[in-house]
Amino acid sequence: MDQTLQLKAYAKVNLALDVTGRKENGYHTVRMVMQTVRLYDRIYMEKNADGEIRLTSNLPYLPMDDKNLVYQAIDRIRTDYQLKEGVNVRIDKHIPVAAGLAGGSSDAAAALVGMNQLFSLNIRQKKLMNLGLSLGADIPFCIMRGTALAEGIGEILTPLPSIPECWFVLVKPSFSMSTRFVYQNLVLDDNTKHPDVDRMCAGIREGSLPVIIENMGNVLEQVTTAHYPDIIRIKEDLRSLGALEALMSGSGSTVFGIFDDPDLAYRAAKALKKNPQIRLVRAVTPFQKAIAE
User: Which of 109, 139, 160 is the last residue of a domain?
Assistant: First the structure.
């Protein structure tokens, strides 16, 4: 093969997630603050001459056919740009699956970026993000990365400044959550506690970690914690280990804590790894666009 691309597909967390309504097509409208974090899958891509899309992965249970978003992303580019050559892809997964971290969306975003590079298509980022939206609402943000306000169904993105220096401890319990199940069981009423997304954005623009911490919130927690109270216990554990605040990411099941001290963060991660009910623990930093790869 004449060229092999290596790409990093970064995870995301939701610093704030509010659901504002439901559209006639069943999609929910949201206002949320998305943050890329430095936990990533590695995507290796190379052309092949026989016109096939071939996926392999370190996880044997992942679909390696057109049910995989990476396959769909590559197929979309090949179709739209009438490419004859095929692509071999190796997906080395480190972001847990069905965890609220957008692992599949990020892999697809990396595949779109990779196709653009591999075939020298010169597709502008905005168009690439629109292509991604046709495959999944999180994909445009996973292409853009950094910190952003997401509105609509998650596709209307307003970039925000990088958040102040801090550390995230990501905790994925042994169970996973279905995004579809969580949204189907979401009830919005007078008792729903909505995060102040505008104040969160203001805190980010001010560079104030305390304001960010004060305004963390996720309306989907009410569904997930009702079925899995372990989410509440993990949040309490993170706080007791020094987290300024803890929150579930997306529809779960990953919970993250924010720390202002790296030693505390790494000690907390070490302590939580001893829990047999925890599948994965990682201490990571937020992705900041100003920092070179």
Answer: 160
- How many residues are listed for the chain in this entry? 293
Q: Are 68 and 62 in contact (CB under 8 A)?
A: yes
Is-contact 247 256, C-beta < 8 A? yes
Domain carrying residue 150: 4-160
| Residues 138 and 108 grouped into a single domain | yes
Query: In the chain, which residues have pLDDT < 50?
Result: 1, 292
pLDDT digits (tens, 9 = 90+) for 69-93: 999 999 999 999 999 999 999 999 9
| Nearest partner of 107 among 156, 45, 197, judged by Cα | 45
Whole-number pLDDT of residue 1: 43
Specify which residues 172 forms β-bridges with. 280
Q: Determine contact, residues 55/93, Cβ cutoff 8 Å.
A: no
Residues with catalytic roles: 12, 138
Rounded distance between C-alpha atoms, residue 68 and residue 108, angstroms: 9
Backbone angles phi, psi at 247, to 5 degrees: -155, 150
For the question of whether the overall pTM of this predicted structure is more than 0.90, the answer is: yes
d(CA 78, CA 176): 33
Report the alpha-carbon distance of residue 203 to residue 57 in Å, rounded. 40
Within a 13 Å sphere around the CA of 30, how many CA atoms are in the beta-carbon half? 27
pLDDT at site 22: 82
